[in-house]
Each structure stands twice: as structure tokens, then as C-alpha cells.
Amino acid sequence: MTRTLAKLAGSCVLAAVLVAGLLFPLAGGFGFVSNRAADAVDNVSAELVEGTVPAVSTMVDTAGNPIAWLYEQRRFEVPSDKISNNMKLAIVSIEDRRFAEHEGVDWQGTLRAFLTNSASGEVQQGASTLDQQYVKNFQLLVVAKTDAERRAAIETTPARKIREIRMALTLDRELTKDEILTRYLNLVPFGNSSYGIQDAAQTYFGVDAADLNVAQSAMLAGMVQSSSKLNPYTNKEGVLQRRNTVLDTMVQNIPSRADEFRTAKTEPLGVLPEPKGLPRGCIAANDRGFFCDYALQYLANSGISREQVDKGGYLIRTTLDPAVQDSVRNAVSAAADPNLANIAEVMSVVAPGENSHDVVAMASSRRYGLDPDANETVQPQPYSMVGDGAGSIFKLFTTAAAMEKGLGINAQLDVPNRFEAKGMGNGGARGCPAATYCVENAGRYKSPLSVTEALATSPNTTFVKLIQAVGVAPTVDMAVRLGLRSYTEAGTSGFSNQSLADMVKEQNLGSFTLGPVPINPLELSNVAATLASGGRWCPPSPIREVVDRQGKQVPLTQQACEQVVEPGLANTLANAMGKDDTEGTAAGSARATGWNAPASGKTGTTESHRSSGFLGFTNSLAAAVYVYGDSPTPGEICSFPLRNCGSGDLFGGNEPARTWFNAIKPVLGQYPPPALPPLDDKYVRGSNQAQVPDVSNMSQGDATSALTRAGFQVTAVTQGGATPKGTVMGTAPNGSAIPGSVITIYVSDGTQRQAPSPAPAPAPAPVAPGLPPLRLPPIPIPIPIPR
Question: Which Pfam families match (predicted)?
């Protein structure tokens, strides 16, 4: 008896000290504790009163369809009028029946709890009001960032209790009772990864919080006591008993509805067969997973971190067009078996524009997922540096750089069977001299070819000769300007911190025009969008806008668009690329898919057939398809079906081009009719300084002088001809050329002269406007091998 009285006396003293600590914070030792509590209140009070809690961010496509739900705590806040009154009555009845009367702290209950707990030697009563519970949960679920802070938020010490009481009093002064109750119900956990009443209602019953009935409300109110132990899927009897306890308190506290509450006790729990939780993150986005990841990376670079997304409750409106995405996914899946372990095909579609380049689709043949045994991957294949190169697609960069220096697309380019580019390093064909890059064509071509013909049929020697005239550095810079921005990043060369662009320029690698280096496939798609936008580069953006939980648009830090080449150059180059689907290396795939619309395109294949691609665009859609060895040790690839093989036969005109046509054709009707842009005569004819004088039938000396005066260098090649010995039969290139570049003159040796024929001479063949007639001996035109 004496011991019990001592405990009670001690409890009274403790309760008195507690009150003293609250009312007289500067007195004695507890004054020091209370001062620390006051500091904590000051630090948290602003957050507490503001009441911002972690909420689910939703990423949607252009039609408003959810792509992914992104969250740390699965919570959807709802206003008071969207919460059932049954739920409000149930939670107040079981947790704080004097809620409407007290001012944040139930002093009577607090003192009683101190006495009861101290007398028993253990915690039997909590006496926390809804205000205090809200404070405790807010500190645990919102404020605490570390395990130590989370332990401190729930520690059973007088200091914590003082902080909690002080903040509860502040909360009750600043907010109405309805605001506090609404915030409480939106905050607390309900188990099975569910937070807040709206998600709890959906998780267990598949209804909104506004539609919760009496029995459902009582169950959820009871679970707040211990959401981990009171799980209706693992402890049905315990949850049923607790629900009925809540209903009993409602019978006592709201006698006018006692019969209704007694009837509810007879009902089963009525929960769903399994919890209805929304999947978390990009992993549940299926074929949209790669796009989802890219969008989050883009947001992080634009000023909204992943942590902010996971807590912010944003509505993230993306640029993903579901119709285009589905078409791309179907085309990619048809071309490449998702179960291929070592080969991937990726495709991204970008919408051209002067002020934005929206990413409207992104897909890979590999399934997005975490199970490598099922050939799933979460690697950023469509938007990272992968593969062995895009091959001859890079010839468009050499062409663009040449056009910027003065070359016109009507120029006639030389097509030697073999070319040795001096000063461009060793490599290429057999018997290559030192400090020389040697290259041969895969087949035989007529010579010369116009720029348009060369882009369509893709002879290697022509473009290696062209890059020697243009320069490697301007060509690399053109590739970067048009869209391959990753090439300037440190470490992309694979050597130290050197960028790939700097390495290629430093080593003067003429092979760059043949595309033997890894690419970022999304950036290659954006190159197409830049050309389709009249030479205007914009970052490939997956985001249309981000809206916060108050409905306000969130500003993003994004790169500005740039005019990287003149519109006339981009438009004329687009025209020069407009024959690939009709007369070039992609013509077979175009016919096979029934493609019959104007489009610009370029195929590419690496020499070892370990990767290939097709870049194509209309005035509305731009995309690159890329097939590569998705393996640490990629091998040669064969076509139809795609597979690893000993001797590759993969070409850009095969699966890559076919995938592009199959993906774009079904959605063409959603956009303005395809049309090639207008030509610019400046880039058709070439600049005035780039015009090659017509020296046909001149002597070698006179021709050399005329070309030298025009600013060109000259080299002579003597060959059999029907004109008098020593006369010039023609030049290569002719029409226009890079100012200051080397012009080859073909000098006749007179060995093919024949007696005059009495028959009249045939009329000259038509030539392109503004170009001098060619006088070269006839050369058989073979069927070109696609590259």
C-alpha cells in the first residue's frame, strides 16, 4: 500500500512538473528541457501549420492516361467535403471523443494517463488527442529524414511529450477543428503501404473516401491504432473485433444512431479479395518504362529532383502520344524478338518544331523490367551511348558541313573504287600507306554522282573524299550542332576525361563519316527533328508541363532552342535525302511496307554488321531506328530474323528502315500531309565561291590555270579518251565544290579517237539546271549494295 501511494505521489509530481514545464519554460531544469522543446516547435511549426505532406505524383500521356504513379508514401489528399461524415464520426469516437471541446490537449485525459501508466509501471493509456496524434505522425512521416529522427519522433520521454503538447496547442490556435480532422485523416497510415483516407478507401474497399459507409469507416478508424497488426488480410478476427469496438463507442457517443451502429456490427468486413494498391514507379509502366525513366531524368536536369517528384503530388503531363507509342512498340516488336538476349532495336519519335522537340514515343525491343532471366532490362537503351555506330547515316553530317562551306546538292561528286585520304591515320583497305586512311566501296557505282544520288546509294569513297575536303573538325562540330550533344561530354571517348568529339578531331579520323562510333539513339532522332525544323535544334523534351497540388504550373529550367544551320541548308538537305525510300538503300523496305509518302531518310551500317540504323523524317515526325548488339561482347548480326551469326548481313535498309515505315505509316493521318520543304537555290547551286569553272576541252595547262584562279587546287588523271591528247574531258567534282578543295581533271591520252561518222551526233542528254555538261567516258552502272 505504501509503495502504491508513493507511485501515485510521484505521478502527481510528474504531472505537475509537466504542466510547469509547459507553463513556465524558464524555470529550473525542466525550463531547459522546455526551451529545447520550444526551439523544436519553432523549427517545425511553420511546416506543421502549412501541412504539406508527401503525396503521389501522377505521370500521364497526352490523352491523360496514367503512365506511372511516383511516390514515397501512397497518399492522395482530399478536401473535407470528399470525406464521408461516417468516417469523421468514427475516428473522433474512438480516438478523441472530446475533440470538439478541448483546445488541442485533453488535460484531464493527460493527467489520468500519467497516473495510470505510472501506477501500473507500463504504458496503458496514451491520452493523445487527434491534434497530438497529428503532430506525432507529422514529425514521423514528414519531418523525420533519418532513422534517428524517426526514433526521436516516437520516443516515450517527457521532452517529446512536451514538444508534442506545445505544437498541438499551436495547431489548435491556427486551424479550425474541421481542418485539423481533415489533415489527420489525410496523413495517417492505414497499412498495406496505404496512407491517408482516400487511398485507404480504395485499397480495402475500392471506393472513394466520400462513399465510405458506417461499417467501412469503423474498420478504418480502428486500424489507426496499429496499422501493421490490424491487417484484415492477416488478422481478420482482430480487425473485426476492433471494428466492433469502434461501433460500440459510436453507440455510446451518438445514441441517436445506435440501432444503425448495432446493425453494422453484424456485417462482414467486406474488404476486397486483395489490397488494391497502385503500382509504384516506372517499373509498372510496361512498354512506357523507358520513356518514364527518361522523363524523370529530364525533370531532374530541369530542377525537379526525384525526391521532389516522389513527395510532391505533381501532375506531370508528358508529350507521349499513345497512338504513336503503340505503333512504334508494335513495329519494334515485329522486327526484333523481345527474347533476343544479345540484340536490341530501339526507336524514338520526335515531333519537329521551332520552339520545342517533343518526344512522342520511345520503345525498345527489350522488355522493361527487373528480371534479367526473362531478358528484361531497365538500362537506358534508347537515350544513352550504345552500340557500334550508325554507319553511313553520318554521311549526312559531312554533306551538311560541305554545304555550309559552299557545296550545292547539284554538284557532281567523284566515286572512285578506292580512295586514300592522306593525313587521316592508318586503317581501312589493304596496302594502305602510313598516315593514310584507305577505303573501298562495297560494290561498283557510276561516277560521278550528284549529292542526292550519293546520299541515296551511299558510296563510301565519295564521302571519305568529301570529309577530307571539308575537314574532320567541321564535320564533327556539325554532328554536335545538329543533335549529337553527348559527344562533347567528358569521358565519352573511353579514354580518360576526353570527349569523343575531341578525340575524333585530335586524331583527324576520316572514318567519322562512316559512323563507327557509339550513338545516343534519341539524339540521333533529334538530329532528324533538327533538319525537319528548318535547322532549329531544341532539346528532346518529354515534358509538356508540371502542375503542383494547388494547380499551379511549376517552372522548369530547360535548354533554349538554337538555330544551328540556316533554314535553306536544312530544307535543301532534306530534299537531297528524299530519294532513299524510292531510289536508294531503303527502297525495298518502303515497297514492302506500302510506304508512298514524301520522306527524307538515310540508312547506315557498320562495316562489321554489329549495328545499323535508319534516320527518317517527314514535316511532322522524325525518328531514328537503331539495331545494335546489346551485350558486353557484341557479334555480327544477320537479318530476317535478327540474330547473331558468323557472317553478318544486317543493313540499315533492312529491319531498321522497315521498322521506321511500319511505325510511322499508321499514324500519318494524325498529322498534316507529308511534304518535302522548299529548296533554296543557294544550296542547290552552291555559293559563288564554290562554282567549278567548266574547263572541258581546254588544255591541261589552261584548265589548271582557270581552276587555280577560281581558288581550287588541281590534280590531273590521264586516261583513255576520244578527244585529242592533252585535252581535259571533265572534272570531279563539277558544278560546285568546297572552296579551296582539290579538283581532279581528267586528261585524254587520245587513244580512243575514232574516224568521224557521217551520222549526225545525238542530242546532248539533259543535265541539271546551272551545271556544265559532262564529257566522261561511259561507265557501266552496277546495282549498288546498300550500306
Answer: PASTA (PF03793), Transgly (PF00912), Transpeptidase (PF00905)
**Amino acid at site 460:** N
Q: Give the β-pairing of 742-748 and 728-732.
A: antiparallel
Q: What is the pLDDT of residue 27?
A: 37
The arrangement of strands across the sheet holding 66-70 comes to 66-70, 57-60, 315-318, 543-547
Give per-residue pLDDT as tens, 685-722: 999 999 999 999 999 999 999 999 999 999 999 988 88
Closest C-alpha to 181, from 105, 83, 94, 254: 83
Neighbour-count burial for 458-467, b at 16+ CB within 10 Å, e otherwise: bbbbbbbbbb
**What's the rounded Cα separation, in Å, for the pair 657 and 640?**
13
Query: Could you tell me where the beta strands, DSSP code E, fall in 156-310?
Result: 189-191, 194-195
User: Which triple of cell numbers denotes residue 406?
Assistant: 559552299
Nearest CA among 536, 515, 542, 540 for reference residue 526: 540
454 contacts 398 by C-beta, under 8 angstroms: no
Give the model confidence (pLDDT) of 284-315 as tens digits. Answer: 999 999 999 999 999 999 999 999 999 999 99
Task: Name beta bridge partners: 717.
Answer: 746
**388: which 3 cell numbers?**
557500334
Phi and psi at 557, nearest 5°, equal -90, 110
Q: How many angstroms separate the Cα of 545 from the Cα of each of 363, 536, 542, 556?
A: 22, 22, 9, 8
Query: How do residues 385-443 score in pLDDT, each as one tens digit?
Result: 999 999 999 999 999 999 999 999 999 999 999 999 998 876 666 778 888 999 999 88
* Separation between Cα atoms, residue 565 and residue 785, nearest integer Å: 32
Q: Return the ∠ at Cα 133 (arms to 129 and 139), rounded to 5°.
A: 145
CA distances from 130 to 140, 223, 761 (A): 15, 15, 106
Runs of H (alpha helix) within 639-787: 655-664, 681-685, 700-709
Segment of 209-223, 366-380, 769-783 carrying the highest mean pLDDT: 209-223
Nearest to 451 by CA among 482, 411, 479, 508: 411
Residue 605: beta bridge partners?
Answer: 612
Three-state SS for 668? helix
| Helix%, strand%, coil% for the chain, nearest 5 | 45, 15, 40
What one-character-per-residue DSSP string does 162-188 give?
HHHHHHHHHHHHHS-HHHHHHHHHHHS
Q: Which DSSP category does 435 fall into?
A: T
C-beta pairs of 149-156 under 8 Å, 24+ apart in sequence: 156/123
How far from the centroid of its chain's Cα atoms is residue 158's Cα? 51
C-alpha cell at 782: 552496277
- What is the C-alpha separation between 330 and 343, in angstroms, rounded? 17
| 144 CB-near residues (< 8 Å, 6+ apart) | 150, 152, 153
Residue 150 to residue 168: CA distance in whole angstroms: 19
**How much is the pTM?**
0.87
Instruction: List all residues 6 or more positions away from 186 whose beta carbon is below 8 Å from its beta carbon.
Output: 53, 75, 77, 78, 196, 197, 198
Which residues are CB-contacts of 544 (< 8 A; sequence separation ≥ 6)?
62, 317, 318, 319, 358
C-alpha cell, 654: 533492312
Alpha carbon distance 587, 424 (integer Å): 33
DSSP 452-464: HHHHHH--HHHHH
**CA pseudo-torsion sign 316, 319, 322, 327:** negative
Task: Judge whether 512 and 471 are in contact, CB under 8 Å.
Answer: no
What residues does 644 pair with on adjacent strands? 637
**Do residues 528 and 615 make contact, with C-beta atoms less than 8 angstroms apart?**
yes
Question: If you average pLDDT over residues 142-155, what whole number do you get?
Answer: 88
